[in-house]
Amino acid sequence: MRFWIAVLLAGLWITPALPLETVALAENELFEWDNSHDGTEFSFGDTRMRLELIYPEGETDWIEGAYLDVTDGDHEFRLHTEAGLSGFGELGVFTIDRSGGHSIVFGAYTGGAHCCMTVQSVLLTADGPVIADLGMYDGDFVVPEDLDGDGLYEFKLWDGRFLYTFDAYANSIPPILIQDTEDGVVRDVTAEPQYYPLIKADMQNQSEYCGGPGGWEASACAALAANAARLGQYDTQRERIATYLETRQFHSGWDEYSFCEDEACNTTLDITSYVEALDYALNKWGYLPTD
Ligand SMILES: [Ca+2]
């Protein structure tokens, strides 16, 4: 009896404050974190990750950013993502890279009226991490998917360069954008033949608002033409749109289309002709072959 009391007391004595539970991440599954995961440890094989949320002074509800401290065998590094007016984000380990290696996908929601998940994809290599910023994507969670069934995952996104360009944000319909990484560097792989069915499905939606039952919307026509360019069918759509614009106007749209000439967008190129703006955008953004 005395022995068991001693064991019990010893047990009480050595019981420390319980650390937060370590969350084991499953391969190719996204974990959606929130404020309650501040300080949480995550694991994937030998890789350990610790999430630390950054709050503005006096705030506890929303965060202005998050750190992820990563220990990966021989390497230790810290990832940072900005956030704002939000308290959630995402974390996962995916086979996105064409090398077949594992990438940490880390992002936080930026908050705002209609915005965005900021996402990084970080390839873990024997030489250390290769960090790729995917940028901000409209919507909440960016979930990598294996779109072509080859066992490697891709990001199915929308080309945000089309937002605001051909119409106001609310009327903007961006075309599909598919990205993966190669040796940790982001690639736009949308035009690869295995994704043609996804491009065609996207065009179905846009057709409705580019001469279909939904009328003629400047932004839908731009996205439709961009998708057509991926399939080598730009000229057909361009001619169809130009013919319509000879006698009519789009249902809504800007009077002119502006393109940033520098990173800070201090100077813009403003084009009044829609078709010229479309040519310019699709060339500038790599939708049309360079010759
Ligand atoms: Ca795939």
SSE blueprint:
Elements lengths: L1 H13 L8 E2 L6 E4 L6 E4 L2 E8 L8 E10 L2 E12 L1 E7 L8 E7 L7 E9 L2 E10 L17 E4 L17 E7 L2 E4 L7 H13 L1 E3 L2 E2 L1 H13 L3 H14 L9 E4 L7 E4 L2 H11 L7
The structure holds calcium ion.
Count of individual helical segments: 5
Percentage of β-strand residues: 25-35%
As laid out across the biggest beta sheet, the strand order is 1-3-4-5-6
Structural class: alpha+beta
Instruction: Give the overall average pLDDT.
Output: 90
Distance between the termini: 89 Å
The rounded Rg comes to 24 Å
Element-level helix/strand string: HEEEEEEEEEEEEEHEEHHEEH
Helix content: 10-25%
CA-based shape: globular
**Which molecules are bound in this entry?**
calcium ion
Q: Could you give the count of β-strands? A: 17
Low-confidence stretches: none
Give the domain tally: 2
- What composes the largest sheet? 5 strands, mixed
